[in-house]
Amino acid sequence: PSVWEDIEPGEVDPILSISDVWKADADPKKLNLGVGAYRTEEGKPLVLNVVRKAEQAVVSDPGTNKEYLPMTGNAEFCQLSRELAFGKSSTPVQENRVVTVQTLSGTGALRLGAEFLAAHYPCKLVYLSDPSWPSHLTIFNKVGLQVRYYRYFHAESKGLDFQGLISDLCSAPQGSVVVLHNCAHNPTGCDPTLQQWRAILEIVVQRQLLPFFDSAYQGFASGDLDEDAASLRMFSAAPGMELLLAQSYAKNMGLYGERVGALSVQCLSKRVGSRIEGQLKALIRPMYSNPPIHGAAIAAKILRDKDLYEEWKVELAGMAGRIKAMRQALYEELQRRKAPGDWSFILRQIGMFSYTGLTREQCEIMTRKHHVYLTMEGRISMAGLSASRAGYLAEAIVDAIK
Ligand code: PLP
Asked: What GO cellular-component annotations does this UniProt entry give (predicted)?
């Protein structure tokens, strides 16, 4: 018999497995709102024009080769990513006390940051929003950190449970790591207002918590890159602030499979920063040695070239705009069918997802009877919807809740 005869099958990923089942479904009405990937009105994946142009330029540049990158990745990409998130005029950036390394997209940045904290941060407690993106729990558990939750979603209003959030962070032990989605919270689509962010910052400072920002949707929430970085920049500017930031270009540049991201650590001096960089390298070297060149070269080209950057902003606003239009379309279709209850939260929620409040049983009806695929906590990816399917989705919802 195999030495693995009794091996367990391994847990199925709750989100990625949805697409597998969806693919196997032969019904032409099927609708995949499970995975968080942008789709065109025709339901097709989108490669941004600006990405095609940048890629052409990278490929045809005679200076392009296939040499290894340094362990920390493409230095220009790192610098431009840091500036994109923190802002060019950010004091910590200008004082060279934000260290940035290229990572395998947002997941890689979170994992590397988690490994770094497990090895070099005294407090082993990590607070996640309840609910949060499922990989947060598994990533932090994997490196041996202990995960706790702070209240986040208010089931009744389908909005932010601000009081719950504040009270849970107030009772977090000093030094705890707190994971914050800088915008377009996944899965709830509920973000704090700027005023609420200020209150959260106050507690973070008071309790000496360490913020770990997860920025997977910069530009995708509002359509504006600066607006979506406001929470991070507010925290970063606070005196004495140290923090981590995981960035992903999967959604905002549509570079999903290219695995383009960055991890930044803001600290208090250049000297400490360069030591942190040394420790990050020590984690990277035995894990994957150095990151891939292609996607980061595309992103760097777009971030560096003024015309391409402007074009990117327009395409990004276009994606964000289509998602907002889908919120409106779904809301109107539900109204038209006189769906019981108040569905205006769909318009208030932000970013790629809407957290519908559908129960597991109702989600099962959606999938089994109507071939609408969504996560079993009732999260739907608005980016997977099209104007022509909004009516169908509304009908399925009305049937599932009756
Ligand atoms: N963080 C959040 C909250 C996400 O929703 C995602 C993607 O779905 C990621 C991070 C990272 O994704 P990736 O590893 O594809 O960049």
From this structure: mitochondrion
With a Cβ cut-off of 6 Å, ligand 1 is lined by 36, 105-107, 133, 181, 186, 214, 216, 248, 250, 256, 261
Residues 6+ apart with CB under 8 A from 1: none
Burial class (CB in 10 A: 0-12, 13-18, 19+), 67: exposed
List phi, psi (to 5°) of 198: -60, -40
Tens digit of each residue's pLDDT (9 = 90 or more) over 189-201: 999 999 999 999 9
Question: DSSP label at 43?
Answer: S
Q: Locate the ligand 1 atom nearest the alpha carbon of residue 36 and give its number.
A: 8
ipTM of predicted assembly, 2 dp? 0.99
Structure tokens at 229: 């970085």
CA dist., res. 292 & res. 290, Å (int): 7
Active site annotation includes 214: yes
Which of 191, 197, 228, 251 is catalytic? The answer is 251
pTM of the model: 0.96
Encoded tokens for 242: 């140290």
Rg (CA), the chain: 21
Strands (E), 285-386: 353-355, 372-373, 379-381
Return the residue matching tokens 């220009």. 76
d(CA 338, CA 341): 9
* Residue whose CA is at the smallest distance from ligand 1 atom 5: 186
Name the token pair of 161.
């449970």
Half-sphere exposure of 53 (CA within 13 A, CB side): 14
Structure tokens at 390: 């909004």
Which ranges of 143-227 does DSSP label H, i.e. alpha helix? 162-170, 194-206
311-344 pLDDT, tens per residue?
Answer: 999 999 999 999 999 999 999 999 999 999 999 9
Q: Are 176 and 127 within 8 A, CB to CB?
A: yes
Å from CA of 61 to ligand 1 middle: 31
Measured between alpha carbons, how far is 110 from 116 in angstroms, rounded to an integer?
10
How far, in Å, CA of 61 to CA of 59, rounded? 6
Q: What are the distances in angstroms from CA 97 to CA 10, 110, 342? A: 41, 20, 47
* Residue 204 contacts residue 240 (beta carbons within 8 Å): no
